[in-house]
Specification:
- The protein contains 5 helices and no strands.
- With 83 residues, the chain is mainly α.
- The protein has helices spanning 2-8, 10-20, 24-35, 38-44, 47-81.
- The chain crosses the membrane at residues 57-75.
- Keywords: Membrane, Transmembrane, Transmembrane helix.
């Protein structure tokens, strides 16, 4: 059921993607900052930009995962009620 929910939520993920990221380049930059150590970003003068991009990507992943878990719990309760 979780795999089905993952696929059914693709339009929701696309909407959230546009809320969190301006375009694919912005998303790519967030991924780059996520995997760049903070000390390197500090020396490049991009420390706070790194922190914000990392937080945006983490929140995006957390919300997408949370939606699936919440839907699963609701469907599980509904199925239990009708048993």
């Amino acid at each position: 059921m979780i795999i089905l929910l993952l696929f059914l939520n693709i339009p929701v993920y696309k909407f959230l993607f546009r809320v969190f990221f301006v375009d694919n380049d912005d998303y790519s930059e967030s991924i780059r900052h996520t995997f760049t150590p903070n000390i390197i970003s500090l020396f490049r003068g991009e420390y706070w930009k790194d922190r914000m991009n990392t937080a945006r990507l983490q929140f995006f992943i957390l919300i997408c995962g949370g939606i699936v878990v919440l839907e699963y719990l609701v469907l599980h309760k509904i199925i239990d009620i009708f048993r």
